[in-house]
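TL;DR need structure tokens for one chain.
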Amino acid sequence: MHTSKQKEPIVHAGELRHRVVFLQKQVQVKSGVSTTQWLPAFTCWCKVEPLSGREFWQAAAVNRENEVRFTLRYRNGVNPAMRILFEGKLYDITTVLDVDNRHSKLEILARSVTDGQPTA
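>> reply
TL;DR here they are.
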């Protein structure tokens, strides 16, 4: 067995139990008419959890009561212009955090998309 002290992984593989799809908006213009589609950018494993008690109430104070935290291994290109598809529900990304600026994991706060209120 290796005796030197190794760094513990920031993201434990066993916690990443949920398969999610990140979607990117694509706008096409044909004959002056624009159409918007959300196309898959990538699929990955995430940890998905509702905000905890205090976080929930802080989020509710700014009208974000339906916010969820997605945690995944770090990757470039994830941004608030994307959406997340998880278990048939769409989520708008509100915040993308590179935890401790270590490029090891991302924490994403996302709010469920309500019908009739698409984001621009």
